[in-house]
């Protein structure tokens, strides 16, 4: 174990002497510019995805509404007469042959 501690100390001393030169201003500028570009692309993508989600939600709602209406409407096989209303059929009590049709 003492050997590994000595080796660790030697490595620490060697690494502490190594100095990295600071980057030049052009490199820093390019890095910052590319970061801003990525944020802009990310914001565009987020807006596009939100818009696509809203369109999908609208289409799903429309399809659900159309399906509900299709199930709720009565079948076309029902024969309707002139006396049918939304509340049912109202049949006249007497003879209506003398009445004229309203147009």
From TrEMBL:
The chain crosses the membrane at residues 46-73. It comes from the Bacteria. Keywords: Membrane, Transmembrane, Transmembrane helix. This is Uncharacterized protein. It comes from Rhizobium rhizoryzae. The lineage of its organism: Bacteria, Pseudomonadati, Pseudomonadota, Alphaproteobacteria, Hyphomicrobiales.
